[in-house]
Specification:
The protein has three helices and seven strands. By secondary structure, the chain is α+β, with helices and mostly antiparallel strands. The strands form two sheets. Strands 1-2-3-4 form a four-stranded antiparallel sheet, covered by helices on one side. It has a three-stranded antiparallel sheet with strand order 5-6-7. The radius of gyration is 21 Å and the shape is elongated.
Length: 152
């Protein structure tokens, strides 16, 4: 992040997790392809099925590495495994990362909670806490205060 904690756009991603997943994808593809080429009794179709299986496994690992959160002036985009949700700043009530949570949760103005897999403390807890605090600061800086019920 830049020195200004409120500078946008900013993207939050679980960097170490992504590095592990992409490395695993490369290693799995290389290993399975090597086995397919080294087994002498396999025919061309069987070798191809090994490579196709490696590609399928890699696709799963790439999907697992997909989550991110993009904060822009107009709002926040949450990209999870298979879904993308665009939120206006006013829709986000609270950013939560409690002890033991697998990832950040956004409390939304409609009463629901949205998991944010793009900030997860798995193998980089300090980074996830810092990212959660940064997102919380962005939400607080851009939230529109509602009318004070005492003045109504």
């Amino acid at each position: 992040m830049t020195s200004d904690p409120h500078a946008l756009p900013v993207t939050f991603r679980p960097g170490r997790t992504r590095a592990v997943l992409y490395s695993a994808a490369v290693a799995c593809f290389a290993a399975i392809t090597a086995v397919a080429l080294l087994l002498e009794r396999l025919g061309p179709g069987e070798r191809l099925s090994f490579v196709a299986t490696a590609l399928l496994l890699d696709a799963v690992l790439v999907v697992l590495a997909r989550p991110k959160v993009v904060a822009e002036e107009s709002g926040v985009t949450v990209v999870n495994l298979v879904s993308v949700r665009r939120l206006e700043w006013a829709e986000i009530v609270r950013v939560n990362l409690r002890q033991g949570d697998p990832w950040v949760f956004l409390d939304l103005s409609d009463g629901t909670s949205l998991p944010v897999l793009g900030i997860q403390p798995g193998i980089a807890r300090e980074r996830a806490v810092a990212d959660a605090r940064a997102l919380r600061a962005l939400v607080e800086a851009r939230s529109v205060p509602g009318p004070d019920p005492r003045q109504a």
